[in-house]
Amino acid sequence: MENNYKMVAKTLFGFEELLERELIQLGAMHVKKGVRNVSFEGDKGFMYKANLALRTAIKILKPIKTFKVLNEQDLYDQIYKMPWNKYLKPTGTLAVSATVHSKAFTHSLYVAQKTKDAIVDKFRETDGQRPNVDLRFPDLKINVHIDRQVCTVSLDSSGESLHKRGYKTATNIAPINEVLAAGLVMLSGWDGQSDFMDPMCGSGTILAEAAMIACNIPPNLMRKEFAYERWEDWDVELFEKIEASLLSKTRDFHHKMYGYDKSPSAVAKAKDNIKNAHLDEFISIQHEDFFKTQKAGENKLHMVFNPPYGERLDINMEEFYKSIGDTLKQGYPGTDAWFITSNLEALKHVGLRPSRKIHLVNAKLEARLVKYVMYEGSKKGKYMNNDKDE
Prior knowledge:
Blueprint: E1 5-10, H1 16-26, E2 29-33, E3 37-42, H2 44-53, E4 59-68, H3 72-81, E5 93-101, H4 108-127, E6 132-133, E7 140-147, E8 150-156, H5 178-187, E9 195-198, H6 205-214, H7 236-247, E10 257-261, H8 264-276, E11 283-287, E12 301-305, H9 317-331, E13 335-341, E14 356-362, E15 365-374, E16 388-389
Helix pairs in contact: 2-7, 3-4, 5-6
């Protein structure tokens, strides 16, 4: 059994608790929540599993060295001393990214350049040849993080951000990030035990993520590649075993999932993406204007959506948000409706009082995920009244 080592999963602001829960459920050891990240321990197989199965992670980093740095010479010397031939061939390719929170180091690009120089100089000295830089498909992706005087060097096991699941070929003007979509659905408490609807579905991302959650399908099965597949210790048999084990845990879904959009091009794109994700047996996409619809049937309905914010569409926000409230009140009894918005002013025009408000950040914009509970029957149109902000 291979030894466990520390890893760090990066995420979006507000999703740390979700990611912590996901890691514990997957079987990670020593899970510890940070800001926009969660650290944990596991072995190589667990690293493969985390990349395949985590819904709210953007990257999985494997720290290999931590040291103190006071200036750029310190950084160069410490990086130079590391045994890079353990991780990379002299004929290989590399890419370095950096994040800095330090008075001594103010430019992340400069830190990345200095790191790269130290690594290639070391190879030139020891092997007489040096690896080349390949920013798109490197054999080794290195991440340098400097926080004040502490430098952590990590290997990036994911490569491209994990929100790039691989099922999207078509997006609309402002597509919602897959990790954000999965996190919203998870925060809404969706458990796959009712009908699900996205009334403004755009390119279908929220629906795809909700279906994968309902069926316990690992979100990153369709990725073309993870960075660790180019590592010196890549174990394809172990990877296939982990993949098969995850696939054996999928489950059936016995309710309806559907999406509306009033844009014909969005409907076409959503259908394409849902088909690419092999989820078309669960999800139907229809060309409808939500404001002209009513709930189909008596079943409990779980709704999650991402209405336009005003930045990307020329619409009257006050009227638009009032129409959301009116449509929910008049046409959707027996519905838990959740949506995210960064237009906090327009939210006041919904005309309903949210039963939950969760503070998030969407593409650097302050946002709220809000919940409205629409009651059945005689309580139709009433809503909960505790307006909790988190």
